Amino acid sequence: MLNIGKLTGVSLAAIFLAVGFPAAVASADAGSELASNAATSEHGWLDRFYTDRNMKPVWTNKRSAKRKLKRYVDALGRANEFGLDPEDYGYSTLTSAIKEVSPATYRKIDRMASLSFVNFALDVREGRISPRFDFTSEELAGREVSRAQILSGAAKKKDPQRYLATLRRDNPIQASLTDAMRKYLAFAESGGWEPISIDATKLEIGATGKAVEAVAARLRAEGFFNGDLSTKTVTVNTASGNVDTEETMSQERTVALYDETLAGAVKRFQKSRGIVPDGIVGPNTLEKMNVAPEELVNNIRINIERARWLPQDFSERYVLVNIARFTVGLYENERLQQEIKTVVGKYHQQTPVFAGSMSYVVFNPYWNVPFSILRDEIAPKVLEDTDYLAKNNYEVVRGWDDETAEIVDPKSIDWNDVIAGETDIRVRQKPGPSNALGRVKFMFPNEYAVYLHDTPAQALFERTDRAFSHGCIRLDEPLEFAEWVFSRSSDWDYDKIEAVLAAETRETVPLETEIPVYVTYFTAWAGPDGDVYFLDDVYNRDSKLAAALKRAAPVLEVAETANFNLK
Predict the structure, then answer these.
(1) Helices (H), 100-146
(2) Any idea what DSSP says for residue 254?
(3) DSSP label at 554?
(4) How far apart are CA 473 and CA 514, in angstroms?
(5) What is the full DSSP assignment across 6-66?
(6) I want to staple 258 with a disulfide (CB 3.0 to 4.6 A). Which of 25, 70, 207, 562 is the partner?
(7) Positive or negative CA dihedral for 222, 223, 228, 230?
(8) Measuring CA to CA, how many Å separate 284 from each of 273, 275, 346, 544?
């Protein structure tokens, strides 16, 4: 297992360039998760590869080699399962070319197949877009593979499908999303589900009629409801047909009934869409039910790309934050031990995507107010109320060492200068129940000054949309988190943690072994329960990534391959 160790600051974009995959410098926007991809077309490496092997073909010179090409094309035809488009790698062209292999054409087709295979293997292995994501040198070591190395391996292997599997580097997230892709591709290919509508403003337990049947059919189509639909006998009054007497007749009918079982299936669906699971089909739930499977497939495709940016192997213990799901998962040996609700950055103060190493924990911390908050929020309030700082447990200091910082009288400060940005002071909030960081913070030093911490604002955890912070990640259950962090320490247990917190004295505790922290953004997520979760794109990043994937030029174009020098 890998240990993230100390970040080197090497971006994956640099590694893409190292292996010859076109990529641009990552965006400097801390809230951005990807870089632009400026595609180029260079095949000099391919010329050298064939020259070094005296122009010996890889795919077309013998009957066995032709079978190898056929097996590769069959694998390429299933590229959708990996979130890629087969036609970007010349699937139709290669399918036709297999029938045309002859002494006059085999060199051209061989090179075409080689270029297709290498780029398909690299895209499955690393992704098509360069992310804004930093890893350690140790984690990157396994990624350093050249196109010539990949093709050389293909030349030596009889079965390209098995060889591709060895190159894939599926991490657990990627593997589970690939399974989800197969599942939802099958839904789409089988016709999916029809949009439904209901006459009432909502459906809940006790409702009857055709709308109940439609909801049950919709949930059954996606596997959320597999039982029998309950029914109820009702009496319906209808006209007798005698226009002279205008009599009515009573008639018994059997109608579909919205019962506890169906409500449970609705709750399961709602949970998979990030909706409050109340078992009531209202406008929001109905809107999510009417999303076509093809749209869900595209959502999974985008997130498979994100999964490829992560390491193949995670450490034995690691923390994984999913910003879009508002959760943090605690993992050991690739198994989820606990999942905790979080509050993340609001839209205009987004939590960035990055990796770090948790190295120490601070109990009863100071909150060192970021200068932007001091200037824009606190200083104006001090001008309105000179006792504002004291009322909220703040103090003014000079110096950045919390132990030796000089405490300054707030009345000696010109707060207009602070608003103008002309100051050498800072403000910190002292430990206590009202401290913005709560009672504990978990530190993994990074360029964004983002960390995990407690919060006194507990009411926010009851909401489904929890994007309210200035960028840091607030924890719903910080003591349980701390207990897990120290679970392998002989010096710390839950009782000791509680005792330190009760004393309200600041204490910094270094970790015996650093714990990797991955701050990610997945709007499609395959859970351990087998359900796939489709979440709101709170930062509007999906459309940007989808556009970048669309802009990425196909890696194999027929017009280009036709002009190869095949002599």
Answers:
(1) 106-126, 137-141
(2) E
(3) P
(4) 19
(5) S---EEHHHHHHHTT----PPP--TT--B---------HHHHHHHHHTTT--SSSSSHHHH
(6) 207
(7) negative
(8) 10, 8, 22, 24
Phi then psi for 553, rounded to 5 degrees? Answer: -65, 140
| Whether pLDDT at 243 is above 60 | no
Closest to 445 in 3D by CA, of 397, 371, 511: 511
Q: Are strands 524-526 and 473-475 parallel, antiparallel or unpaired?
A: unpaired
For 507-518, write each residue's pLDDT tens digit. Answer: 999 999 999 999
Do 511 and 5 form a contact (C-beta atoms < 8 A)? no
Q: DSSP for 72-107?
A: HHHHHTTGGGGT--GGGGTHHHHHHHHTT--TTTHH
What's the one-letter identity of residue 357? S
In this structure, the strands spanning 394-398 and 317-322 are unpaired
Among 462, 460, 454, which Cα is nearest to 479's?
A: 454
Give the contacts of 202 (CB within 8 A, at least 6 positions apart). 280, 281, 282, 283
CA–CA dist 8, 504 (Å, integer):
36
As to burial, measured by CB atoms within 10 angstroms (0-12 exposed, 13-18 middle, 19+ buried), residue 385 is: exposed
Nearest Cα to 363, choosing from 514, 503, 515? Answer: 503
Residues 6+ apart with CB under 8 A from 460: 343, 466, 468, 474
Q: Which residues pair with 358 in a beta bridge?
A: 515
Q: How far is CA 434 from CA 264, 327, 396, 405, 504, in A?
A: 39, 23, 17, 22, 12
Q: Are 166 and 36 in contact (CB under 8 A)?
A: no
Instruction: Name the least confident of 239-253, 299-313, 328-342, 446-460.
Output: 239-253
DSSP tag of 491 = S
Write out the E strands in 409-488. Answer: 426-429, 440-443, 452-453, 467-469, 473-475
The full length of the chain comes to: 567
Residue entry with tokens 């890696």: 555
DSSP code per residue over 300-324 = HHHHHHHHTTS-SS--SEEEEEEGG
Q: Is a pLDDT exceeding 80 seen at residue 14?
A: no
Q: Using the 8-state DSSP alphabet, how is residue 279 labeled? A: S
From 400, 450, 469, 457, select the one nearest 428 (Cα to Cα). 400
CA separation for the pair 195, 211 (Å, rounded) = 12
Q: What is the mean pLDDT of residues 59-67?
A: 79
Judge contact between 394 and 429, C-beta under 8 A: yes
